[in-house]
Amino acid sequence: MLAIQVLKRLREITLEVDLTCGSGVTALVGPSGSGKSTLLRLVAGLARPDQGLIRLGSTLLDDTTRGVHVEPWRRNIGLVFQDYALFPHLSVARNVSYGLEARRLPRSERRRQVDTILERLGIASLANERPGALSGGQRQRVALARALVTNPQALLLDEPLAALDVQTRTSVRRELRGVLADLAIPTLLVTHDYADALIFRERIIILVDGQVVQDGSHADLLAHPRSRFVADFTGVNYLEGVLQPVEVGKLGCVDLAPGLEIHVPANGIAPGPVGISLHPWEVTLSQSPPAGSARNVLPGAVREVLPLGGRVRVVLEIGPAHNHTLVAEITPEAQEALGCKEGQVLYGAFKATALSMSSR
Q1: 0.90 exceeded by the pTM?
Q2: Is 3.10.110.10 the CATH number for 2-228?
Q3: Per-domain residue ranges for the chain?
Q4: Residues 236/281, Cβ–Cβ less than 8 Å
Q5: Are 88 and 129 in contact (CB under 8 A)?
Q6: Is domain 235-359 given the CATH code 2.40.50.100 in the classification?
Q7: DSSP code string of 226-248
Q8: pLDDT tens, residue by residue, 176-210
């Protein structure tokens, strides 16, 4: 168990976090400058908190009240840097052995442990290679081997996929999940790319401006984003408005802006400020107002058309002032039929039952 209750004042933000991480991967996601890497540095002992404590199992690593600060090399925490920080002049085996040499283990024992971890990660054949001769995915495995060979009590990974090209990144994501799934220790993985976090969807923490704004599984974040940032980050539409008083058994009405309203299932939510989430694939687009069961039909001008593999994301500007957005995901065939282009007026339609609403 890794317990983190810290406050750290940075130049532009104050990092203030209260987290407990059990065994398994916790993905820490957020934009650049949100304090993610600083949090890893605090846990690793490379920086000290201004206030608070960090505990790993029964070991107190930091406690500002008692003046406790355990030095990094005494924490038994594995750390994988963004650029992997491998020694270019050493072989793979020597890179992995480095931490064991610092612990003054006998050579035979070092060799045994290195051979074991290289075999475990599927890179035993690379033992005598230098890092410069390896692919990005292979270098990542070497960095992981070096971090794991000392049997750490926790593992920290700072943007472990950032150094890879797009094509390699997809395959290495899956490989990394397989490796980390076998670890029975707290593992904190930092990334600014939500796609990287999705592979570890059991627990995702969103950090913005030094504060945890949401903590849950991918399904939780997708179904109930608590802020516009989380919705944008996960690719969900998020609209804020005011729920009007609702008659029993009828749909509610939410005013998003003057002249812009949508109908929602109230589900016992009290009138007042609300946040509404809507998956982009629940939105259908047409060139004219559609006939059908969709309770909500909103016209908007196309702002962006973004191909995403087998889907196309279309962003509409809606409302009298065009200061709200509605995002739809459609097939390439539907895009071609609509002739989607920037500035074109389309109608976005969605059912009231597709909306998820919560009080703000």
Answers
A1: no
A2: no
A3: 2-228, 235-359
A4: no
A5: no
A6: yes
A7: -SHHHHHHHT-EEEEEEEPP--T
A8: 888 888 788 999 999 887 777 777 768 999 999 99
